[in-house]
Design goal:
The structure holds two protein chains of two kinds.
Chain A lengths: L3 E3 L4 E4 L4 E7 L4 E9 L5 E7 L4 E3 L2 E6 L4 E6 L8 E9 L4 E4 L3 E6 L1
Parallel strand pairs in A: 2-11
Antiparallel strand pairs in A: 1-3, 3-8, 4-5, 4-9, 6-7, 7-8, 9-10, 9-11
Chain B lengths: L3 E3 L3 E4 L5 E3 L1 E3 L5 E8 L3 E8 L6 E2 L6 E7 L2 E6 L8 E8 L9 E2 L3 E5 L1
Parallel strand pairs in B: 2-12
Antiparallel strand pairs in B: 1-4, 3-9, 5-6, 5-10, 6-7, 8-9, 10-11, 10-12
Classes of the chains: A mainly beta, B mainly beta.
Chain lengths: 110, 114
C-alpha cells in the first residue's frame, strides 16, 4: 500500500463549480499535512498547510480527519486558473521526511 | 522573493556520461533536497542535506551522489548516466521548522539520457 494515495483524476469541472479531492495516508504517526499545486511543466508550489481544526484560504478549504487518515481539499467557485495538479504531502515526524502523493489533476472548463 | 535556481531547464546526455545538476538557493536555508518526478510515481526523494558537507540518502539513492560544499549550493551527480535516469529532477530547500517544513522548489531540470 502506498504511503500517500490520491485519485489521479482528471476531474473535469465547469467554471463556478465546487470540487473536492481526498488524500489518504497510511502512517498514523504522520504529523503535518500540506497541499501543493503544480502547473503543467512547472515546479510544485505550496498551496496551503492543513491544520487539525481545518483551515480556509479564500475559495480553498483544507480539512484533516485523523480517525480515517485522510485530508481533503475543497475548491469553491472554480476558476479556469485553478486547472493544475494538486499534490498531497505528508510529514511523518519520526522519519523527518515529506512523502508526496502522485497528484490529482483538475481541469476547469469554460 | 524566495528563489531556488537550477542550472539547466533541459539536458540531453548519453549513456555512461557523468552528469552534474546544480542547484542554488538564496534564502539561507539549511535543508536542501533532490527529487525526481516520473509519471504515475510522483516525487521521490533521492538525497537530502541538513548542513554543509552533510548528506543523507533518500528513498532512491542508487546511481546518484551529491555534494554540498557551500550552504547555498547542492549538486546532484549521476556518475554514469543510464536511460532509466531520464526524468524531471527537482531541487528544493527549506528552513527547519519541526514537522511543519515547507519546501521551495526550483523550476526543474528535464534530463534525457539517450
Amino acid at each position: 500500500r502506498k504511503e500517500v494515495e490520491q485519485d489521479p483524476g482528471p476531474f473535469n469541472v465547469p467554471e463556478g463549480a465546487t470540487v473536492a479531492f481526498n488524500c489518504t495516508y497510511s502512517n498514523s504517526a504522520s504529523q503535518s499535512f500540506f497541499w501543493y499545486r503544480q502547473d503543467c511543466r512547472k515546479e510544485p508550489k505550496l498551496l496551503m498547510s492543513v491544520y487539525s481544526s481545518g483551515n480556509e484560504d479564500g475559495r480553498f478549504t483544507a480539512q484533516l480527519n485523523r480517525a480515517s487518515q485522510y485530508i481533503s481539499l475543497l475548491i469553491r467557485d472554480s476558476k479556469l486558473s485553478d486547472s493544475a495538479t494538486y499534490l498531497c504531502v505528508v510529514n511523518t515526524y519520526n522519519t523527518d521526511k515529506l512523502i508526496f502523493g502522485t497528484g490529482t489533476r483538475l481541469q476547469v472548463f469554460p | 522573493d524566495v528563489k531556488v535556481t537550477q542550472s539547466s531547464r533541459y539536458l540531453v546526455k548519453r549513456t555512461g556520461e557523468k552528469v552534474f545538476l546544480e542547484c542554488v538557493q538564496d534564502m539561507d536555508h539549511e535543508n536542501m533536497f533532490w527529487y525526481r518526478q516520473d509519471p504515475g510515481l510522483g516525487l521521490r526523494l533521492i538525497y537530502f542535506s541538513y548542513d554543509v558537507k552533510m548528506k543523507e540518502k533518500g528513498d532512491i539513492p542508487e546511481g546518484y551522489s551529491v555534494s554540498r560544499e557551500k550552504k547555498e549550493r547542492f549538486s546532484l551527480i549521476l556518475e554514469s548516466a543510464s536511460t532509466n535516469q531520464t526524468s524531471m529532477y527537482l531541487c528544493a530547500s527549506s528552513s527547519p521548522d519541526g514537522a511543519n517544513e515547507k519546501l521551495f522548489f526550483g523550476s526543474g531540470t528535464q534530463l534525457s539520457v539517450l
